[in-house]
Structure formats: C-alpha cells, structure tokens
Amino acid sequence: MSSSERYERSLPVLLEELAAPRTPAYFDDILGQVDRTRQRPGWTFPERWLPMSAVSDRLATAPRVPMRAVLAAALLLVALAVGLALLAGGRKPAVPAPFGPANNGLIAFVDESGAIRTGMATATSFAVTVPGPGNDSPVFSPDGTRLAYLHPNAVGQLDIVVAAPDGRDARTINTDAIIAANFISWTPDGGSVAIESRPGTLFLYDAARPGPGTIINSSFSGGSVGFGDRMASVFRPPLGEEIAFLGVGPEGDGLYVIKRDGSGIRPLLTPKTGGLPYFRLQSPEWSPDGTRIAVTVQPAADPEYVMSIYVVEADGSGLRRLSPGCSGTDTSENFAAWSPDSTRIAHMRWCQRGDDPGVQPITVVDVATGVARGIGDVQLNGYNGFAWSPDGTSIIEVPGPPVDDRLQVLIVDATTGAVRRTGQSTEIPPTWQRTAPVAP
Amino acid sequence: MDQRDLVMRAQRGDKDAFAVLAGAAVARLDGAARLILRDGELARDAVQDAMVRAWRDLPGLRDPDRFDAWLRRLTVNACLDTARRRRRRSIEVELTPILMPSIADESASFAEREQLDDALRRLDPEWRAIVVQHFFLGMPLAEISVAMGIPIGTVKSRLHRSLVAMRGTLRDADIDAGEPIPGGQFA
Fold first, then answer.
1. Residue A386 — very low, low, confident or very high, per pLDDT cuts 50/70/90?
2. Do A248 and B88 count as a contact with CB atoms less than 8 A apart?
3. Cα(A9)–Cα(B132) distance, integer angstroms
C-alpha cells in the first residue's frame, strides 16, 4: 500500500477525532427556533402539485426578437470585418473568427502520466506534445494557433505556458508566483490568458510577453465572484469586452455583467430584477453569438434547491427555463455548454429518485423549442468533462463515476448519439482546436 | 417508528418528530460544519440556519426517503454560504482550534491531528467541503456532485488536488503558515 493510500485510509479516523462529533450545546436553541418558526404550507410549493413544465412556463416571456435581430446583424458585421481583416492580412494563415462554428482541428488532453497528447479525433494514436508529469488544463486559443496549459515549475508553483499546438515554441507568460489556478481561459481576442488563482478574482496575463498578472475585477475585491467550473464563456463574445459574473453588485447577490475595465455594471438577474426568486446561481455561460447567457439557478420556491438551467437575454430580458426537466422525478441540471452556432445547449442532468442521484447521459436541448435529448448511453455520461466540437456535430466527453470510472476519451455524435472510443483516457476535460474553414 | 414515518409526521407539523430527526443528525452535521468552516461560532450559525430551513421547508420535500441527503445538502450549502459571506466582508475570522480531547485512539497521534488541522485550514472552504463530505460524512462522489452542483469529474479532481495539497502540508511542516497551497485561500 502506498503512502497516499495509507493517508486516504486514515483520513476518516483523523477527521472523526478532529471533529469529535457530539450533540452541540446549541441544539436546544435550534429546537427553540423551530418552535417559533412556522412551516411553509405544502401548497405554497408549486412543484408539489403542478407539473414542473407549468412552473417553468410561468417564467417564460417572449424573446425580444427585434433586439436579437439587431445583435445578430451586428455580429455578422463583426464577422465580416474579421474576415476582411484576415483577407487583408494576406500572408497570414487562415484562422477562424473567434466565435461561431469552425472546422475541427486537434484534440488535446492530459494523459495519465501528466503529459499532453494531441491528435485528430479520428486518430488511432495521439502524440505526446508536452512531456509530463504534472501538466494541467490545456486549452486552445480561440483561433486555434496556440495552446495554453499549466505546468508545475521547479519550486512547486505553477507556470502558465503558451505554445504552438504541436508543443513547440513553449514559453512561460507569468513572472509572478501562481500557487493555485482553479480555471484557465483565453480571452476571445486571443491576446490574453485568464486564470482564477485567488478565489473570486480573475487575473489576466498577456499571451505574447511575460509579465505579472493583472487583476481585472478589482472593483469587486472583497466580493465573491463565482465563475462556475469553466471560464470558457465568462467573456462576452465576440470581442470579450464584457464579463458575466456572479457576485455582489449594487442589487445584492446576483448575475451581473461588467466591462473589462470594471465600469458599466449591469444587473441581469438579481433579487431586484424580480421574476425568479432564487437561492443561488451558478455557472453563467455566454452564448457564442453573445446574445444570451445560460445560468444555473436554484429557485427559492423549490425546497429541495434543485438546480435548473435558465436562459436570459444579454439585456436581462426573456428569462426562461431551458427545458421542463425529467418526467416524474426531480431534475438537477448544471454546466450549460452552448453549441458553436448558439442553437443548442449541452448540459449535465440528474433525475433524482430517493438516494439515487439518477445520473443521465449528456443532455442536449434545442434552445428554441426546449426539446431535450440524452445522447449516448448513461454509462458514457461525460461527467468528467465535456466540450462541443468546433463544427457542432460532436461532443468530446470523459465518462465519470458512478457508472463508469475508466476515464475514456469519447467522441459522441451530437445528433445520433453514436460513440467513438479514442482508446485514450484522461482525468482533465479535453480541449478541441478550432481551425478556419478550408478555402473552396 | 422508522425514519420515513418520522419525516412524514414532521412534514405535517409534528415538532417532536422533527426533534428526533434533528437530534439524530445534529452531532455529525455540527462536526462537518466545524471542519468546513474552522470556526465553532460560524458552524453553529450554519447548522442552525440549515435546521430551521429544513423545518420550514420540510412540507415541500417530495421524497421522505431523501431526508438525510437533503439535510446534508442544506448544511453544506449553509456552510458554503457562510464562508462566502465571510470572504465577501473581507473579515478574517480568528480560527478557533477545534482540537479537543477525543476518545483515545492510538492509531492517530495528537501531532497527526494537529497537522491535519493545519492542512485543512489552508484549503479553500469549497475544497474543504468536498474532503469533509467524502471522508467525514461518507458521501459518495455522485451525491457530492449533486449537492454542490459540480460535475463528478470536478469533485474528483478537487478531492485529488486537496489530498495532494494536504499531503504536501504534512510532508513539509516548515511551510510558511501564511502561504497558501493549491486550492487554498489567500488571507
């Protein structure tokens, strides 16, 4: 038995001794408080006597089509401008626009030895591009030309390394000490790498030249900023000029949007915006077209605080539940991931029954209709992480426990659910390179 | 009377039934809260908040068999909310050592517990909560995943990284007490 196994085995005993559980002296106070607290009547919980779909429909409002159309037109113009700029670049290799569908390039993942491997999704072998051990969180830049990852340095801290997709030209871009990095992401313009190395604080590092990180949400220092577990869509596409964050703003705990320079805060979903009293919000995700945000909500009306995914327009209007949820059981949903064309959302779903968490396969929902569909088998549930392919036809996923603990890297067809096994395994969610469409 | 009957009675407003249910759970939940929050007063607030919320919202619990898991979830969420509020106010509460005389067990020395206490203290509360839920409350990863609203993979990776960090602290007793470790919070 290794020392780490021994340590894990001893933990329950050590924690038991450390906590020394006993009935606390304040238990009588609790009973006193209970005695003075009235229960909410059962009928005030609408989920007990209404179908969940009816409850969620109450919140549905008509989307503001004119605004969407205007934004879509604006985005098309931006895309056109980006395209023209690329054409004007002449000798530069073609790269995709920083948002929307693109061609599928390499996938990259950290193998069991801590090395980063890359290859096309159809490959039968994947080359080591960054030797291990200890690499973490590889993520391709939006234009697919670079790969950022975390690498442990000689003194046990973390370096942010930016390299070519094949691992060459690797250079460390941080000059300050990074002790921990919960999340890592590129800004949409590909100019910077963002990490959350201090809980609730975003640091930006210039991807082109080494330097210290710049805190970009300092106006909320002292605030709690929840970025969820992925930061891929914290910055508003296509330019990343705004950041969606969960935290304390002028209207209390809620979902806000703020400009990158810390100005122009806008409340999107707060206790004062009304419509949906909530217990907690999690994991905001911008749609790739920058018009909407998906956010996980634990509605206050539900005593079990199950999580549901809601979609809200970028201006805060049109809050609606994404889909009705499981039939006949409680539904928990989280980790919305927009398809590159912004029409579908993949997410994790649990259909809870008793002590059974009811793990489901990755669920894909048509955003316009709310129709949900589990893709693949529940045994291949993507719970160790998943991501859309750049062309939106597939989802790369890594199954997780309790139904599968083999950490396989799988490619699942987002329409048919057909699964292709890469023969690889990883504990860290893979990343998929976006490349420009091939010229006709 | 089995627990399901007690829950159903409590759902109909029977405070005695709720007292039995709460009494059976409170010691372990209080222990978990103290481990997560590293402060007895904060832990008391969190457990009280969870218990009163449980009583208030119990009529809405759809499945009586899920009472234990629900109460654990309420308590852990109350702890995390307490930790967030504390962080938000930028007030660093003096951490009260929770070491106290325990049942004699020769398998673990006082020094080991002290080191574990130090290692836990350096973790971010959300990471600490995962360690406590898994190793102290005995919750499987899937239940932690649902309770905290994070993917199982994230639970697993955070648990793994927490253990690595904690082992590192135990190995290196000379580490600067003010220096955070992976997953740790900055003071």
1. confident
2. yes
3. 14
